[in-house]
Amino acid sequence: MAKGDHARFLKTFLKNPSSTGAVAPSSEALSKAMVRGIEMGGEDLVVEFGPGTGPFTKAIQEILPSPEQYLGIERDPEFVSLLRARFPDLALIEGSAEEAHLHVETHRSDTGHTGRVKAVISGLPFASLPDPVQKGILQSLLDLLPAGAEFRTFQYVHAYGLPKAVRFRKRMREIFGPVTVSGPIFWNLPPALVLTWSAGTD
Ligand SMILES: C[S@@+](CC[C@H](N)C(=O)[O-])C[C@H]1O[C@@H](n2cnc3c(N)ncnc32)[C@H](O)[C@@H]1O
After folding, report:
1. pLDDT in tens, 105-116
2. Which of 40, 101, 158, 188 is the most exposed, having the fewest neighbouring CB atoms within 10 Å of its CB?
3. Residue 155 β-bridge partners
4. DSSP structure class, residue 73
């Protein structure tokens, strides 16, 4: 992680606690767990929601066959500037994951990329997002994920049983079916679990 990321992150959290949702960026251990087992084909696209300062972006970059197979969607303009400087080869859109399906269409027409979405990797703090925003993002996800594609996010171990976290998983189960939950990633502040859903077959 680059020097200054913790301070930058904390500043953004204080400015906008519910959409930042964490006081520190995710660790390298959690970032690697977020991409573990994803095998990108030559045409596949991976979409990242809420890259922040870019820890998951770095892990995703390491599994990408080529840079145009990535699209990041981040709402905070300061994080977007930082990400563009840090990952000059990757496409980053300043916008909301609520319009992810539209951003992917724009990315396709800008780059000529025709591949399918293989995975959406999310760093969004779903449990603390306002309900209409959460619902909007899930609707967009439904439009975005083809059969067989994966959606991954994380929840903190200490918050896993809280009503908002449980409600989010229930909503996801109603749309995408059962979840696979990783073992705890202790080397993260705070420790976290990786949650994976697979979009159903047609
Ligand atoms: C918990 S932070 C995670 C940052 C990074 N992925 C990590 O793990 O360190 C959540 C990020 O989601 C972004 N965000 C929140 N709501 C968003 C939305 N509707 N669309 C896109 N990004 C959003 C925030 O600005 C922040 O960068």
Report:
1. 999 999 888 889
2. 158
3. 193
4. E
Q: Determine which residue's CA is closest to atom 4 belonging to ligand 1.
A: 52
Tokens of 70: 């990535």
Phi, psi of 149, deg, nearest 5: -75, 160
Single-letter amino acid, residue 95? G
Beta bridge partners of residue 76, listed in sequence order: none
Q: What is the pTM of this model?
A: 0.96
* HSE-up of residue 123 (Cα within 13 Å, Cβ side): 27
The residue whose CB lies within 8 Å of the most ligand 1 atoms, and thus the one to mutate among 10, 76, 84, 137, is 76
CA of 74 to the centre of ligand 1 (A): 6
Per the listing, tokens 């080397």 go with: 187
Is residue 28 within 8 A of residue 1, CB to CB? The reply is yes
- What's the confidence (pLDDT) of residue 13? 82
Domains and CATH numbers, the chain: 26-198 (3.40.50.150)
Q: Would you say the CB of residue 49 lies under 6 angstroms from ligand 1?
A: yes
Distance 18 CA to ligand 1 centre (A): 10
Choose which residue among 8, 28, 49, 79 to substitute to test ligand 1 binding: the one with the highest number of ligand atoms within 8 A of its C-beta: 49
Tell which residue, 40, 8, 1, 175, has the closest CA to residue 121. Answer: 40
| Of 202, 200, 176, 181, residue with least CA distance to 192 | 181
